[in-house]
Write a structure and sequence with these properties.
The structure is a single chain. This protein is an alpha/beta fold. It has one domain (30-107, 139-167, 186-330): Glycosidases (TIM Barrel, Alpha-Beta Barrel). 42% of the residues lie in helices and 19% in strands. It contains 14 helices and twelve strands. A hairpin with a 5-residue loop joins strand 4 (122-124) and strand 5 (130-134). The longest helix has 23 residues, at 188-210. Bound molecules: zinc ion.
Length: 353
Amino acid sequence: MLYFRLKQVNVFTLFPILFIAARIQPSIAGHMDITIAYFHPLLHPDVVKQDFDQIRATGAGSILYAIHEQEEQRLQRDLERGLRQAQDAGLKVHVSLGRHGNLFAGPLFVPSWYTFRHPQSRVMDRHGRYHEISCFNHQSFRSWLFKEIEHYLTSYPINGILIDEPRGLEVTCFCSVCRALCPDVTDIQRFRRRSMIEFLSELCACVKRVDSNIKTTIALLPQDMSQVEDIATIPQLDTIGCHLFWNMLNEDVTLVEQWGRNVVEIAHQQGKRSQIWLQNFNLDGDSQKQLDSAFVQVQSVEPDELGCYYFWRNNANPAQVWQMTQAYLRRIPRRQLYWQVNSPGQPGIEQAS
Ligand SMILES: [Zn+2]
């Protein structure tokens, strides 16, 4: 009956409805956005262009680039040009705050310049020993970090900030600031957890204050999964990522699916996007054979986003690993075919890349 009625409706009357319906469902089952970490110098524009074109050709929509404090002081023009090149190639740019305050991970194994120069900001344990990590409850540290973020976001073409494996819970801090904020010693461990979420929340809010369109991501290791539920409550957080690095963590590759499913479920419960990272680095001949299995498991949990690396460190066969990665990414369904007006009144079909 409905079909019969529809037949009597002029197709051009119906077209705007079809157009809107197609637009509001922009993806097909199994579709994932792809982010590729690019941890390489931006000094040689021709090489960078070739790399970004290759990355774009895999279907990736974003790169992840890491800025370390030491680099930003001396490479401003290279950063500006290189990140612009990514956007010119059609890639969104997400930036990781490499080892700022020694609180986050970063591709270079270097200490934080801030923590080195401000030793009084360090975490102090119950025995009065200092640890090489700035306490996120120090207002001077927060002010510096948030100013740095504002500076990056207003100086460089950036679409998102990624907080890479935030640390701070392995040592309960007894510094004077933490003690003043939490005079009840029996509560200080729980206070540490609460204040870490509050710190990350303020960091995400700082990003959104500069530009509400800039995306925020926090990426965790599987062993920090107990924090995911708390992190997922951060209002200004868009995406929860997880590094399913089975090989680096000396775990069985079959855990990848279980880890991944957990993250995807919690992220979706809180209305966040999920991002799962494939360990296509640090692989020898044997572990390289497990990459297939890891990818199939990642794909099976259907995250909103898949992350992997472009020629990243310590592979026995770097070119082979990149070829395998390209082949995996080609297996991910491309975006939905959607209706688009090619000329007035003429519906056409275009495939988004
Ligand atoms: Zn402290």
